[in-house]
Specification:
Aspartate Aminotransferase, domain 2; 17 strands; 40% helix; binds pyridoxal-5'-phosphate
Length: 404
Protein backbone atom coordinates (compact mmCIF):
# COMPACT_ATOMS: atom_id res chain seq x y z
CA UNK A 1 0.00 0.00 0.00
CA UNK A 2 1.07 3.48 -0.77
CA UNK A 3 0.94 6.32 1.75
CA UNK A 4 -0.08 9.24 -0.43
CA UNK A 5 0.12 11.88 2.30
CA UNK A 6 3.70 10.92 3.03
CA UNK A 7 4.54 10.79 -0.68
CA UNK A 8 3.14 14.28 -1.23
CA UNK A 9 5.68 15.63 1.25
CA UNK A 10 8.38 14.63 -1.24
CA UNK A 11 7.06 17.05 -3.87
CA UNK A 12 7.69 20.69 -2.91
CA UNK A 13 5.67 22.00 -5.86
CA UNK A 14 2.49 20.43 -4.49
CA UNK A 15 2.58 23.04 -1.71
CA UNK A 16 2.28 25.98 -4.02
CA UNK A 17 -0.80 27.97 -4.84
CA UNK A 18 -1.94 28.81 -8.34
CA UNK A 19 -4.31 31.75 -8.78
CA UNK A 20 -4.75 31.79 -5.02
CA UNK A 21 -5.85 28.14 -4.86
CA UNK A 22 -3.87 25.04 -3.89
CA UNK A 23 -2.35 23.54 -7.04
CA UNK A 24 -4.15 20.46 -8.34
CA UNK A 25 -1.75 19.01 -10.88
CA UNK A 26 -3.48 16.74 -13.40
CA UNK A 27 -1.14 17.20 -16.35
CA UNK A 28 1.09 14.27 -15.49
CA UNK A 29 0.94 12.79 -18.97
CA UNK A 30 2.70 15.93 -20.25
CA UNK A 31 5.33 15.96 -17.54
CA UNK A 32 5.52 14.60 -14.02
CA UNK A 33 6.56 16.53 -10.94
CA UNK A 34 9.98 16.14 -9.36
CA UNK A 35 10.50 14.80 -5.84
CA UNK A 36 13.00 16.38 -3.44
CA UNK A 37 15.14 13.22 -3.65
CA UNK A 38 15.76 13.92 -7.36
CA UNK A 39 16.13 17.68 -6.87
CA UNK A 40 18.80 16.92 -4.23
CA UNK A 41 20.75 14.79 -6.71
CA UNK A 42 20.70 17.66 -9.23
CA UNK A 43 21.89 20.20 -6.64
CA UNK A 44 24.52 17.76 -5.37
CA UNK A 45 25.83 17.18 -8.88
CA UNK A 46 26.37 20.87 -9.63
CA UNK A 47 27.60 21.53 -6.09
CA UNK A 48 30.12 18.70 -5.94
CA UNK A 49 30.73 16.78 -9.16
CA UNK A 50 30.30 19.03 -12.19
CA UNK A 51 32.88 18.08 -14.85
CA UNK A 52 32.94 16.73 -18.37
CA UNK A 53 32.90 12.97 -18.59
CA UNK A 54 34.83 10.21 -20.38
CA UNK A 55 37.71 12.59 -21.08
CA UNK A 56 39.56 13.92 -18.12
CA UNK A 57 42.11 12.04 -16.07
CA UNK A 58 41.35 14.33 -13.16
CA UNK A 59 39.36 13.10 -10.17
CA UNK A 60 36.28 15.23 -10.72
CA UNK A 61 35.88 14.02 -14.29
CA UNK A 62 36.28 10.43 -13.19
CA UNK A 63 33.72 10.81 -10.43
CA UNK A 64 31.23 12.41 -12.81
CA UNK A 65 31.87 9.63 -15.34
CA UNK A 66 31.29 6.98 -12.68
CA UNK A 67 28.01 8.55 -11.59
CA UNK A 68 26.84 8.82 -15.20
CA UNK A 69 27.77 5.23 -16.03
CA UNK A 70 26.16 4.00 -12.80
CA UNK A 71 22.96 5.70 -13.96
CA UNK A 72 23.19 3.85 -17.27
CA UNK A 73 23.43 0.58 -15.37
CA UNK A 74 20.43 1.51 -13.22
CA UNK A 75 18.47 2.12 -16.40
CA UNK A 76 19.69 -1.16 -17.89
CA UNK A 77 18.62 -3.09 -14.79
CA UNK A 78 15.27 -1.31 -14.60
CA UNK A 79 14.34 -2.23 -18.15
CA UNK A 80 16.12 -5.60 -17.94
CA UNK A 81 18.34 -4.96 -20.95
CA UNK A 82 20.98 -7.63 -21.52
CA UNK A 83 23.90 -5.16 -21.76
CA UNK A 84 24.41 -1.63 -20.46
CA UNK A 85 25.77 -0.60 -23.89
CA UNK A 86 22.30 -1.30 -25.29
CA UNK A 87 21.14 1.80 -23.37
CA UNK A 88 21.79 4.96 -25.40
CA UNK A 89 21.34 8.18 -23.45
CA UNK A 90 19.37 10.71 -25.47
CA UNK A 91 17.57 13.98 -24.87
CA UNK A 92 14.26 12.10 -24.72
CA UNK A 93 11.70 10.09 -26.63
CA UNK A 94 11.65 12.40 -29.64
CA UNK A 95 15.42 12.32 -30.00
CA UNK A 96 15.45 8.52 -29.59
CA UNK A 97 12.86 8.02 -32.31
CA UNK A 98 14.67 10.35 -34.69
CA UNK A 99 17.90 8.49 -34.05
CA UNK A 100 16.32 5.21 -35.14
CA UNK A 101 14.41 6.77 -38.05
CA UNK A 102 17.61 8.35 -39.32
CA UNK A 103 19.46 5.06 -39.05
CA UNK A 104 16.84 3.25 -41.08
CA UNK A 105 17.36 5.68 -43.98
CA UNK A 106 20.28 3.51 -44.96
CA UNK A 107 18.31 0.27 -44.66
CA UNK A 108 15.02 0.97 -46.46
CA UNK A 109 14.15 1.18 -50.13
CA UNK A 110 11.17 1.88 -52.34
CA UNK A 111 8.45 -0.73 -51.88
CA UNK A 112 9.23 -1.27 -48.20
CA UNK A 113 6.49 -0.49 -45.71
CA UNK A 114 6.42 1.05 -42.26
CA UNK A 115 3.39 0.51 -40.04
CA UNK A 116 2.41 3.06 -37.42
CA UNK A 117 -0.64 2.99 -35.21
CA UNK A 118 -3.55 5.40 -35.36
CA UNK A 119 -2.93 6.13 -31.67
CA UNK A 120 0.42 7.82 -32.12
CA UNK A 121 1.88 11.01 -30.70
CA UNK A 122 3.12 13.40 -33.41
CA UNK A 123 6.71 12.64 -32.44
CA UNK A 124 6.01 9.07 -33.51
CA UNK A 125 4.47 10.01 -36.88
CA UNK A 126 6.52 12.83 -38.36
CA UNK A 127 9.98 11.14 -38.23
CA UNK A 128 8.53 8.19 -40.16
CA UNK A 129 6.96 10.45 -42.75
CA UNK A 130 10.36 12.08 -43.20
CA UNK A 131 11.97 8.65 -43.43
CA UNK A 132 9.47 7.65 -46.13
CA UNK A 133 10.26 10.82 -48.08
CA UNK A 134 13.97 10.02 -47.95
CA UNK A 135 13.67 6.35 -48.90
CA UNK A 136 10.48 5.95 -50.95
CA UNK A 137 9.11 3.53 -48.35
CA UNK A 138 5.40 3.74 -47.62
CA UNK A 139 3.70 4.58 -44.33
CA UNK A 140 0.60 2.58 -43.47
CA UNK A 141 -1.65 3.02 -40.47
CA UNK A 142 -3.05 0.39 -38.08
CA UNK A 143 -6.60 1.68 -37.45
CA UNK A 144 -8.39 2.07 -34.10
CA UNK A 145 -11.96 1.48 -32.95
CA UNK A 146 -14.39 3.75 -31.06
CA UNK A 147 -13.14 2.48 -27.70
CA UNK A 148 -9.69 3.81 -28.62
CA UNK A 149 -8.11 0.39 -29.18
CA UNK A 150 -6.06 -0.81 -32.13
CA UNK A 151 -7.87 -3.24 -34.43
CA UNK A 152 -5.58 -6.24 -34.41
CA UNK A 153 -7.28 -8.06 -37.29
CA UNK A 154 -6.50 -5.04 -39.48
CA UNK A 155 -2.93 -5.14 -38.22
CA UNK A 156 -2.68 -8.79 -39.31
CA UNK A 157 -3.96 -7.82 -42.74
CA UNK A 158 -1.38 -5.03 -43.09
CA UNK A 159 1.61 -7.20 -42.20
CA UNK A 160 3.48 -8.69 -45.15
CA UNK A 161 6.97 -9.41 -46.41
CA UNK A 162 7.13 -5.69 -47.34
CA UNK A 163 6.78 -4.64 -43.70
CA UNK A 164 10.19 -3.60 -42.41
CA UNK A 165 9.29 -1.61 -39.34
CA UNK A 166 6.39 -1.32 -36.91
CA UNK A 167 6.01 1.65 -34.56
CA UNK A 168 3.46 1.68 -31.80
CA UNK A 169 3.24 3.42 -28.47
CA UNK A 170 2.99 1.21 -25.41
CA UNK A 171 0.32 3.47 -23.94
CA UNK A 172 -1.51 6.26 -25.76
CA UNK A 173 -0.87 9.69 -24.25
CA UNK A 174 -4.19 11.08 -25.50
CA UNK A 175 -6.48 8.24 -24.39
CA UNK A 176 -4.50 6.10 -21.96
CA UNK A 177 -5.08 2.87 -23.90
CA UNK A 178 -2.53 0.15 -23.08
CA UNK A 179 -1.65 -1.52 -26.37
CA UNK A 180 -1.00 -5.28 -26.56
CA UNK A 181 2.63 -4.68 -27.46
CA UNK A 182 3.87 -8.22 -26.90
CA UNK A 183 1.39 -9.56 -29.46
CA UNK A 184 2.22 -6.69 -31.82
CA UNK A 185 5.94 -7.47 -31.54
CA UNK A 186 5.49 -11.24 -32.03
CA UNK A 187 3.40 -10.74 -35.14
CA UNK A 188 5.88 -8.25 -36.63
CA UNK A 189 8.75 -10.65 -36.02
CA UNK A 190 6.88 -13.38 -37.88
CA UNK A 191 7.26 -11.33 -41.09
CA UNK A 192 10.81 -10.23 -40.20
CA UNK A 193 9.97 -6.63 -39.31
CA UNK A 194 11.67 -4.67 -36.52
CA UNK A 195 9.58 -3.01 -33.82
CA UNK A 196 10.06 0.25 -31.94
CA UNK A 197 7.85 0.85 -28.94
CA UNK A 198 7.34 4.38 -27.64
CA UNK A 199 7.23 3.87 -23.89
CA UNK A 200 7.03 7.53 -22.83
CA UNK A 201 3.55 7.07 -21.46
CA UNK A 202 4.00 3.54 -20.12
CA UNK A 203 7.08 3.99 -17.94
CA UNK A 204 5.29 6.09 -15.28
CA UNK A 205 2.87 3.20 -14.69
CA UNK A 206 4.68 -0.09 -15.26
CA UNK A 207 8.12 -1.64 -15.77
CA UNK A 208 8.69 -2.77 -19.34
CA UNK A 209 10.95 -5.82 -19.60
CA UNK A 210 12.68 -5.38 -22.95
CA UNK A 211 13.97 -8.95 -23.08
CA UNK A 212 10.62 -10.46 -22.23
CA UNK A 213 8.94 -8.25 -24.84
CA UNK A 214 11.72 -9.20 -27.28
CA UNK A 215 11.41 -5.63 -28.56
CA UNK A 216 14.01 -4.28 -30.99
CA UNK A 217 13.90 -0.66 -29.79
CA UNK A 218 12.22 0.87 -26.75
CA UNK A 219 12.28 4.60 -26.00
CA UNK A 220 11.28 6.85 -23.14
CA UNK A 221 11.82 10.26 -21.48
CA UNK A 222 12.90 10.83 -17.87
CA UNK A 223 10.58 13.78 -17.31
CA UNK A 224 7.48 11.59 -17.31
CA UNK A 225 8.93 9.40 -14.54
CA UNK A 226 9.83 12.05 -11.95
CA UNK A 227 13.13 12.93 -13.64
CA UNK A 228 14.28 16.14 -15.33
CA UNK A 229 13.39 17.29 -18.85
CA UNK A 230 15.80 16.94 -21.75
CA UNK A 231 17.02 13.43 -21.00
CA UNK A 232 15.79 9.99 -21.95
CA UNK A 233 16.91 6.74 -23.43
CA UNK A 234 16.91 4.51 -26.43
CA UNK A 235 17.13 0.81 -25.76
CA UNK A 236 18.18 -1.12 -28.82
CA UNK A 237 19.15 -4.75 -29.27
CA UNK A 238 22.91 -4.90 -29.65
CA UNK A 239 22.69 -6.35 -33.17
CA UNK A 240 20.40 -3.53 -34.33
CA UNK A 241 22.54 -0.82 -32.78
CA UNK A 242 25.60 -2.25 -34.50
CA UNK A 243 23.74 -2.24 -37.80
CA UNK A 244 22.48 1.37 -37.62
CA UNK A 245 24.84 4.15 -38.70
CA UNK A 246 25.56 6.94 -36.18
CA UNK A 247 23.10 9.80 -35.98
CA UNK A 248 25.30 12.78 -35.26
CA UNK A 249 29.00 13.33 -35.74
CA UNK A 250 31.10 14.95 -33.05
CA UNK A 251 33.23 14.36 -30.01
CA UNK A 252 32.77 11.23 -27.92
CA UNK A 253 31.37 9.10 -30.79
CA UNK A 254 34.64 8.42 -32.59
CA UNK A 255 37.45 5.93 -32.11
CA UNK A 256 39.91 7.61 -34.43
CA UNK A 257 39.72 10.66 -36.67
CA UNK A 258 41.88 11.62 -39.61
CA UNK A 259 40.85 13.74 -42.56
CA UNK A 260 40.76 10.61 -44.68
CA UNK A 261 38.62 8.45 -42.48
CA UNK A 262 36.97 8.31 -39.10
CA UNK A 263 36.19 5.11 -37.28
CA UNK A 264 33.32 5.13 -34.83
CA UNK A 265 33.43 4.38 -31.17
CA UNK A 266 31.91 1.24 -29.72
CA UNK A 267 28.39 1.17 -28.33
CA UNK A 268 26.93 3.12 -26.64
CA UNK A 269 29.27 6.03 -27.48
CA UNK A 270 28.74 5.68 -31.23
CA UNK A 271 25.32 7.28 -30.71
CA UNK A 272 26.34 9.77 -28.03
CA UNK A 273 28.13 12.59 -29.85
CA UNK A 274 29.05 15.65 -27.83
CA UNK A 275 28.73 16.42 -24.14
CA UNK A 276 25.55 14.79 -22.89
CA UNK A 277 23.11 15.98 -20.24
CA UNK A 278 25.34 14.52 -17.53
CA UNK A 279 23.39 15.81 -14.55
CA UNK A 280 20.13 14.83 -16.25
CA UNK A 281 21.34 11.28 -16.83
CA UNK A 282 22.35 10.90 -13.19
CA UNK A 283 19.01 12.37 -12.07
CA UNK A 284 17.21 9.93 -14.44
CA UNK A 285 18.78 7.10 -12.46
CA UNK A 286 17.75 8.74 -9.19
CA UNK A 287 14.17 9.09 -10.45
CA UNK A 288 14.02 5.36 -11.19
CA UNK A 289 15.36 4.67 -7.69
CA UNK A 290 12.66 6.89 -6.24
CA UNK A 291 9.83 5.22 -8.13
CA UNK A 292 11.14 1.72 -7.48
CA UNK A 293 11.28 2.48 -3.75
CA UNK A 294 7.56 3.26 -3.86
CA UNK A 295 7.01 0.19 -6.04
CA UNK A 296 5.32 0.03 -9.42
CA UNK A 297 2.74 -2.48 -8.21
CA UNK A 298 1.67 -0.02 -5.52
CA UNK A 299 1.65 2.81 -8.03
CA UNK A 300 -0.47 0.87 -10.53
CA UNK A 301 -3.00 -0.27 -7.92
CA UNK A 302 -3.40 3.22 -6.51
CA UNK A 303 -3.68 4.89 -9.90
CA UNK A 304 -6.36 2.37 -10.90
CA UNK A 305 -8.34 3.47 -7.85
CA UNK A 306 -7.98 7.11 -8.93
CA UNK A 307 -8.98 6.24 -12.50
CA UNK A 308 -12.10 4.35 -11.44
CA UNK A 309 -13.12 7.05 -8.99
CA UNK A 310 -12.49 9.89 -11.45
CA UNK A 311 -14.33 8.12 -14.28
CA UNK A 312 -17.34 7.43 -12.11
CA UNK A 313 -17.50 10.98 -10.69
CA UNK A 314 -17.03 12.73 -14.03
CA UNK A 315 -19.62 10.57 -15.79
CA UNK A 316 -22.24 11.88 -13.36
CA UNK A 317 -21.98 15.24 -15.10
CA UNK A 318 -24.66 15.45 -17.77
CA UNK A 319 -23.38 15.82 -21.32
CA UNK A 320 -19.85 14.69 -20.40
CA UNK A 321 -18.28 12.16 -22.74
CA UNK A 322 -15.05 10.24 -22.13
CA UNK A 323 -12.85 9.30 -25.10
CA UNK A 324 -10.80 6.15 -24.75
CA UNK A 325 -12.79 3.59 -22.81
CA UNK A 326 -10.65 0.49 -23.23
CA UNK A 327 -10.68 -2.01 -20.36
CA UNK A 328 -6.92 -1.76 -20.57
CA UNK A 329 -6.06 1.82 -19.80
CA UNK A 330 -4.01 3.90 -17.40
CA UNK A 331 -5.00 6.90 -15.32
CA UNK A 332 -5.79 9.29 -18.17
CA UNK A 333 -9.28 10.68 -18.67
CA UNK A 334 -9.88 12.55 -21.91
CA UNK A 335 -13.29 14.17 -22.03
CA UNK A 336 -15.55 16.85 -23.48
CA UNK A 337 -18.82 18.42 -22.49
CA UNK A 338 -21.36 18.71 -25.23
CA UNK A 339 -21.42 22.15 -26.83
CA UNK A 340 -18.41 23.53 -24.91
CA UNK A 341 -14.90 23.99 -26.28
CA UNK A 342 -12.27 22.12 -24.22
CA UNK A 343 -10.06 25.22 -24.13
CA UNK A 344 -12.75 27.18 -22.27
CA UNK A 345 -13.08 24.48 -19.63
CA UNK A 346 -9.30 24.36 -19.21
CA UNK A 347 -9.11 28.12 -18.74
CA UNK A 348 -11.76 28.16 -16.03
CA UNK A 349 -10.15 25.19 -14.26
CA UNK A 350 -6.84 27.04 -14.27
CA UNK A 351 -8.48 29.95 -12.43
CA UNK A 352 -9.27 27.39 -9.72
CA UNK A 353 -5.66 26.17 -9.58
CA UNK A 354 -6.42 22.96 -11.49
CA UNK A 355 -3.91 22.10 -14.22
CA UNK A 356 -5.30 19.94 -17.04
CA UNK A 357 -4.32 19.67 -20.65
CA UNK A 358 -6.61 20.86 -23.40
CA UNK A 359 -6.22 20.45 -27.13
CA UNK A 360 -5.17 17.65 -29.44
CA UNK A 361 -2.38 16.35 -27.14
CA UNK A 362 0.05 16.04 -30.07
CA UNK A 363 -2.28 13.37 -31.45
CA UNK A 364 -4.30 15.17 -34.09
CA UNK A 365 -5.23 11.99 -36.01
CA UNK A 366 -7.05 10.66 -32.93
CA UNK A 367 -9.05 13.89 -32.68
CA UNK A 368 -9.88 13.69 -36.38
CA UNK A 369 -11.07 10.12 -35.84
CA UNK A 370 -13.56 11.28 -33.20
CA UNK A 371 -14.32 14.44 -35.24
CA UNK A 372 -13.54 16.75 -32.31
CA UNK A 373 -11.13 19.69 -32.04
CA UNK A 374 -9.57 18.28 -28.89
CA UNK A 375 -10.38 17.16 -25.38
CA UNK A 376 -9.81 18.12 -21.78
CA UNK A 377 -7.31 15.62 -20.43
CA UNK A 378 -6.85 14.92 -16.75
CA UNK A 379 -3.96 12.53 -16.12
CA UNK A 380 -3.35 11.25 -12.60
CA UNK A 381 -0.12 10.26 -10.90
CA UNK A 382 0.54 8.33 -7.70
CA UNK A 383 0.83 11.61 -5.74
CA UNK A 384 -2.70 12.74 -6.63
CA UNK A 385 -5.67 12.21 -4.34
CA UNK A 386 -9.40 11.57 -4.49
CA UNK A 387 -10.07 14.96 -2.92
CA UNK A 388 -8.19 16.56 -5.81
CA UNK A 389 -10.49 14.64 -8.15
CA UNK A 390 -13.45 16.06 -6.23
CA UNK A 391 -12.02 19.55 -6.85
CA UNK A 392 -11.79 18.74 -10.56
CA UNK A 393 -15.36 17.46 -10.72
CA UNK A 394 -16.65 20.56 -8.91
CA UNK A 395 -14.58 22.75 -11.19
CA UNK A 396 -15.97 21.09 -14.32
CA UNK A 397 -19.51 21.50 -12.98
CA UNK A 398 -18.88 25.21 -12.37
CA UNK A 399 -17.30 25.64 -15.80
CA UNK A 400 -20.30 23.96 -17.38
CA UNK A 401 -22.68 26.31 -15.59
CA UNK A 402 -20.71 29.37 -16.61
CA UNK A 403 -20.35 28.33 -20.24
CA UNK A 404 -23.74 26.91 -21.13
C1 LIG B 1 5.60 12.80 -24.13
C2 LIG B 1 5.55 11.83 -25.20
C3 LIG B 1 6.46 11.87 -26.28
C4 LIG B 1 7.47 12.96 -26.43
O1 LIG B 1 8.40 12.97 -25.40
P1 LIG B 1 9.54 14.10 -25.38
O2 LIG B 1 10.13 14.00 -24.02
O3 LIG B 1 8.85 15.40 -25.62
O4 LIG B 1 10.51 13.77 -26.46
C5 LIG B 1 6.36 10.89 -27.23
N1 LIG B 1 5.44 9.91 -27.16
C6 LIG B 1 4.55 9.83 -26.14
C7 LIG B 1 3.57 8.71 -26.09
C8 LIG B 1 4.57 10.78 -25.13
O5 LIG B 1 3.69 10.71 -24.13
Amino acid sequence: MLNVNKIREDFPILNRKVNGKPLVYFDNAATSQTPQQVIDVIVDYYSNFNANIHRGVHTLSQEATDLYEQARIKIQKHFNAKYSHEIIMTSGTTHSINLVANGFSALLKKGDEILVSALEHHSNIVPWQMLCERTGAQLRVIPMNQQGELILSDYDALLSEHTKLVFVNHISNALGTINPVKTIIDKAHQVGAAVLIDGAQACPHLIPDVQDLDVDFYVTSAHKICGPTGVGMLYGKEAWLNKLPPYQGGGEMIAEVTFEKTTYADLPHKFEAGTPNICGGIAFGAALDYMNAIGFENIAAYEKELLDYGTQQLLEIEGLKIYGVSENKTSVISFNIEGIHPYDIGTILDKMGIAVRTGHHCAQPIMDFYKIPGTVRASFAFYNTKSEIDALVNGVKKAKMMLS
